[in-house]
Model the fold of this input.
Amino acid sequence: MPSPPQRLDALSAPARLDTITRRLVDWTADHLPQFPWRGSRDPYVIWVAVVMLQQTQMATALPYYARFLQRFPTLASLAVAELDQVLKVWEGLGYYARARNLHAAARLLAERDGGRIPADRPHLLALPGVGAYTAGAILSIAFGAREPVVDGNVRRILCRLFAIADDPTRSATKRTLRDLAVLLLPHHGVGDFNQGLMHLGAVVCIPRKPDCHTCPLADLCKSRRLRIQAELPRAARRRVVPHYDAAAGIIWKDSDDQVLIAQRNLDDMLGGLWEFPGGRPEDGETLADCLRREIREELGVRIEVGRLVTRVRHAYSHFRITLHAFECRSVEGYPRALDCADWRWVRLGDLADFAFPVADQKVIAALLAERE
Done:
């Protein structure tokens, strides 16, 4: 927890806070890029941008943002879409819960509020996937409300400005940072101010080597004065990233160019995406034994495991996997959705119509390469 003198010092210097705010307003006016949603007051297009940027860098998100709005230009168009369609447009962007929650919230608003996005914090926070960051961004950018937006970039700036050495993920430190963010808000142009503060953290006050020589707040930065700016913020020690092996079955339909795919349960990781069925082996289980068990449990089908087609590696946010894909043949039973949301027999050339995780996309690429 931040020490009382530190918190008092940070929160009781209005003249310094006013100077920081004025500097940031001026810097934003000159440096904030013309993002596609800048100047818009349409809460829907701003909401889509905010959700995409939660865990994705700007350069990566922008092409997805353009494609998403081309396919779903309004909240109403998103609400009537099937989840499969939404996930396909989102495919490759990762963190698919964002897409599922955005879709669920759009349907909820269409049914309950006639498609109107609420302009108050409590109603926004009640929507699927909307937390303090998303609500603050929508309210400030779309509606001009004096709401702070505290993302990772803003936390880093505030920790450095006020030399807050505590873990910014702790509840007490979060409250301090939010209080500071509120005190810094200007009376007008809050949306641009919040975007400017986040942009400063993205291009100047960056994690490892902050560019203090171009920072408009350099002479006001307490951690720079103490020469500890590169050490802050001090987060909890990272855990070792575990690695898992997994097996996937490429099950061909007899005398046909069709392969069996399964849709993941919505409440699972990567929920709603399609995959080659399989899973992780239990203790003492071979990959082949794992495949036989998993496919029997998921789909009620007994299989014969054949050759290894490909082995792909992929890293998620908290773990890494090596996916071993085996060619398989069904020997008994007909597919049923026992522990999956759905299943399909699909021709190899039609797999592109379905949304797959990146690891499965690599398997598809290997299969297509074999057919060339």
Summary: The chain has a mean pLDDT of 91. The beta strands are 243-252, 258-263, 274-275, 278-279, 302-315, 320-332, 342-347.
